[in-house]
């Protein structure tokens, strides 16, 4: 039943103010006028606009200590230590350091998943794969002529482009959005779309290199583990991060091919009628189908393998990136926010979305190969290279589209059940006048695989190997400022009812990387999936019996480690875990310098009452390294395990709100004292390349007000690379230097705090990153084990 005629987003913006009053009246729990819809995601935490780490984590959460989902409104994790190893050898070292110190491990990639599956327990450290990006050569392996071994942090689009340049592909198993890491895609059973073969990336895995809780690297493969222990092998291929840290994955390949893509439209009546779905996708190898229920129409991309040449080497699919005007871009997110609270506006935006697809066909030829190359022409029929026709380049998506969060419900069911499911959905959509303004109801296709254990397309009771499958997905805008009641009423409705019905009445297996958490805890789902979960738990008992890699999400979903809660540090590292020769809090078996105190050497200069009351927080007292060091006369000093990263409103630096470790003792500043602190350490570069260092003291400018009457700076080998605060000249939040692997460098962090600090708080957030051959944006927190505390001795 068509509900609203299509219109332009500009007109929708005009309707915006008219419909807001009705929206607010519809439900007070729905914040249609939330300023966050306009202010959030501008990379500035606007406290004066009400932004904070809870309601706008995109701007306000600390990326150096908090893991955020790609859709950050959906999940932002509690602060935790974050490691970013530069190599697999360093990954092993980091896991040894974490586990031997009694912490659990949470593997992390691009965190495209939407639930707390991305978060570790309270006693866990996060280990990211973002620097593990090496792609090996195409080579034979076991029974396969062409395979490639890739590190876990490689993103799908980068792999696609790399393989295509060598004449290879991993087929229709590539995800539609290319900015997902290979390790994360395998862990959750991510997929593309195909009516002819498995479209789940896990089906392409022929070997995995996994780092266990003991830090050892073990290779599992189809020809070894798959023969000796097929249950373990099938579990590893969709592992949820529970069976160790997947460092590398070897994928089977096929020759690169071309795809002839066609845009099709089908009216809803035909689509819903018996046989409608099968008729719509007939003759397609690849399908991306979007059903817009408020417009009574279905759009799909139908792709077929072809031996015909490409129409252009720059042909590509830009389905998700319609060309929006400046006005449309400005009003897109506020319009979606209002539409969340008003069905009329929601349906108007849905109609606009479909009109844009008709007016701007998504199959395009660009001017060149670059992701942001201008569009030269648009087509409804186009032949292009497979990787460009089925995988969206993330740079294009992020550059061209307004950014916001969304809630995605998805699961797979047999093709034989999809028509009945569509007829059920149609009845709910018509009953509740449902419109879906983002992308409609999505269908992609797959085949069941008996070599997988818990992926949504795995062959299971009643579903034979090779049986056609459908991935059915519902995508809703996740608005700002919602309380639990508002989330339930305006995002979850009617999808809680729909998903529960699909689970109870169809063989619907939810996608591990999507959905809301309640889906995986449905009693009927857990009862039906108990055999697979039981088999997976056998694999956990083999590879992670102490639950080093477990978290609350997986435990709530039924996955269990037999010795969860046991002393895994002692079990894996023995007496070594209890030895700490240099008393720095890091066990000898994990300490990079077991006989030297890891951390920083800290000096605090307490300026006293008179000096403190009138002290100047200006950076002008530290114009060069000698002047800065000269500020510290009768200083207090000690080795520090932690404390260089802090945020406190207490001006007494011995207060517990500062995380000095060990705590400062003796005489201390009080509310009317100014003080300054200098941290010094030796940094040994783990790899050759470009390193960037940053600092943040909460000051947005350089005046006495915007500079917070304070100063913070970073020095490498006594040369300043970053400085922020009052009279910073120039203001440089970060700076970069070249370093050589194995060489030592002096690192100094300087912070000066005046008691009349305008923001009434003392802040220090030093960061770093490794950019390889180029600069990077420092967001990684400093790790104690990367530094050796040193005063001014010898050549240091």
TrEMBL record:
Species: Parahaliea aestuarii
Domain PA14: 623-782
InterPro entries assigned: ALO_C, FAD-bd_PCMH, FAD-bd_PCMH-like_sf, FAD-bd_PCMH_sub1, FAD-bd_PCMH_sub2, FAD_lactone_oxidase-like, Oxid_FAD_bind_N, PA14/GLEYA
SUPFAM superfamilies per the UniProt record, alphabetical: FAD-binding/transporter-associated domain-like
GO function term, MF aspect, one: D-arabinono-1,4-lactone oxidase activity
Presence of the UniProt keyword Hydrolase in the record: no
Cellular component aspect of the GO annotation: membrane
Keywords tagged on the record: FAD, Flavoprotein, Oxidoreductase, Signal
Pfam families recorded: ALO, FAD_binding_4
Signal peptide residues on this chain, from the entry's feature table: 1-27
FAD-binding PCMH-type domain segment(s): 75-256
The keyword Oxidoreductase appears for this protein: yes
Record's protein name: FAD-binding protein
């Amino acid at each position: 039943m068509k509900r609203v005629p299509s219109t332009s987003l500009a007109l929708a913006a005009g309707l915006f103010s008219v419909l807001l009053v009705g929206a607010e009246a519809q439900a007070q729990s729905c914040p249609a006028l939330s300023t966050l819809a306009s202010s959030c995601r501008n990379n500035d935490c606007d406290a004066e606009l009400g932004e904070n780490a809870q309601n706008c984590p995109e701007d306000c959460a600390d990326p150096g200590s908090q893991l955020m989902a790609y859709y950050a409104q959906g999940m932002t994790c509690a602060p935790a230590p974050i490691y970013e190893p530069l190599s697999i050898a360093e990954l092993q070292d980091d896991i040894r350091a974490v586990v031997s110190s009694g912490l659990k491990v949470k593997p992390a990639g691009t965190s495209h998943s939407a639930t707390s599956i991305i978060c570790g327990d309270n006693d866990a450290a996060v280990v990211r794969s973002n620097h593990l990006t090496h792609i090996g050569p195409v080579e034979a392996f076991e029974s396969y002529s062409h395979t490639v071994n890739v590190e876990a942090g490689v993103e799908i689009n980068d792999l696609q482009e790399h393989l295509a340049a060598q004449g290879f592909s991993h087929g229709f198993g590539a995800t539609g959005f290319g900015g997902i890491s290979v390790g994360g895609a395998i862990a959750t059973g991510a997929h593309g779309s195909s009516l002819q073969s498995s479209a789940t990336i896990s089906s392409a895995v022929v070997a995995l290199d996994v780092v266990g809780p003991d830090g050892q690297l073990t290779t599992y493969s189809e020809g070894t583990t798959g023969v000796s222990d097929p249950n373990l092998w099938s579990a590893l291929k969709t592992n949820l991060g529970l069976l160790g840290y997947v460092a590398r994955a070897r994928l089977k390949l096929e020759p690169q091919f071309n795809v002839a893509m066609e845009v099709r439209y089908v009216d809803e009546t035909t689509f819903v009628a018996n046989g409608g779905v099968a008729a719509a996708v007939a003759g397609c190898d690849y399908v991306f189908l979007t059903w817009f229920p408020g417009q009574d129409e279905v759009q799909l991309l139908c792709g077929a393998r072809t031996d015909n040449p490409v129409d252009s080497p720059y042909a590509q699919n830009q389905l998700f990136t319609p060309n929006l005007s400046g006005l449309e871009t400005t009003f897109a997110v506020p319009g979606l926010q209002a539409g969340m609270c008003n069905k009329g506006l929601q349906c108007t935006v849905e109609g606009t979305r479909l009109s844009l697809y008709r007016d701007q066909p998504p199959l395009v030829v660009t001017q060149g190969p670059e992701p942001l190359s201008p569009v030269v022409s648009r087509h409804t029929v186009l032949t292009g290279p497979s990787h460009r026709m089925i995988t969206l380049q993330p740079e294009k998506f992020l550059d061209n589209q307004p950014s916001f969060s969304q809630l995605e419900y998805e699961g797979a069911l047999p093709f034989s059940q999809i028509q009945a499911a569509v007829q059920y959905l149609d009845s709910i959509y018509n009953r509740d006048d449902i419109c879906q303004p983002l992308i409609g109801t999505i269908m992609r296709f797959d085949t069941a695989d008996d070599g997988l254990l818990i992926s949504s397309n795995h062959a299971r009771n009643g579903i034979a190997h090779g049986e056609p499958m459908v991935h059915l997905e519902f995508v809703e805008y996740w608005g700002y400022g919602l309380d639990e009641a508002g989330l339930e009423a305006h995002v979850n409705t009617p999808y809680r009812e729909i998903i529960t019905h699909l689970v109870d009445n169809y063989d619907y297996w939810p996608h591990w990387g999507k959905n809301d958490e309640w889906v995986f805890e449905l009693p009927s789902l857990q009862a039906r999936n108990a055999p697979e979960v039981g088999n997976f738990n056998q694999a956990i008992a083999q590879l992670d019996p102490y639950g080093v890699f477990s978290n609350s999400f997986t435990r709530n979903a039924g996955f269990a480690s037999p010795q969860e809660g046991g002393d895994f540090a002692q079990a894996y590292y023995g007496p070594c875990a209890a030895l700490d020769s240099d008393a720095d809090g890091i066990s000898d078996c994990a300490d990079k310098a077991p006989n030297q105190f890891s951390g920083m050497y800290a000096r605090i200069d307490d300026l006293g009452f008179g000096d403190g009351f009138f002290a100047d927080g200006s950076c002008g007292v530290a114009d060069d390294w000698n002047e800065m060091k000269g500020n510290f006369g009768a200083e207090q000093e000690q080795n520090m395990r932690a404390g260089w990263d802090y945020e406190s409103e207490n001006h007494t630096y011995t207060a517990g709100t500062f995380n000095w470790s060990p705590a400062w003792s003796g005489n201390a500043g009080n509310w009317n004292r100014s003080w300054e602190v200098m941290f010094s350490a030796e940094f040994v570069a783990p790899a050759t390349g470009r390193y960037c260092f940053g600092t943040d003291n909460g000051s947005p400018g350089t005046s006495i007000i915007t500079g917070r009457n304070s100063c913070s700076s970073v020095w490498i080998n006594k040369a300043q690379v970053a400085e922020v605060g009052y009279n910073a000249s120039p203001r440089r939040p970060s700076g970069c230097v070249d370093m050589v692997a194995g060489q030592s460098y002096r690192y100094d962090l300087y912070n000066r705090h005046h008691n009349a600090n305008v923001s009434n708080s003392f802040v220090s957030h030093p960061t770093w990153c490794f950019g390889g051959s180029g600069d990077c944006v420092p967001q990684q927190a400093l790790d104690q084990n990367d530094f050796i505390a040193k005063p001014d001795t010898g050549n240091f």
